[in-house]
Amino acid sequence: MSMLTDDKTRTDLLNRLKRAEGQLRGIQRMIEEGQPCQDVASQMAAVRKALDSTYVRMTVCFMEQELGAHLGSNPKGRKQLTEVLGEVQTLLGKVR
């Protein structure tokens, strides 16, 4: 399977994961400090949503990269592809 080749995309994904990592550390602290379960659960749901969102973003970027490679340098086709994949990302984002 291919890797993501766009540096901007990789940076975006890594930043999203680092934020989620920070949230996870915060949840660990909450548990160590004896915070209420509902508060902990709320933060867990937020991390889960952040990871799901990152996964969707990675998947759409991968699709754009691979399909774009098959389109070549057709600007109209690439523009349409970007629009369609933006809609796909929005639809997948609503699944959660």
From TrEMBL:
It holds the Pfam family Trns_repr_metal. It comes from the Bacteria. It comes from Ideonella oryzae. InterPro entries: Metal_Tscrpt_repr, Metal_Tscrpt_repr_sf. Belongs to the FrmR/RcnR family. This is Metal-sensing transcriptional repressor.
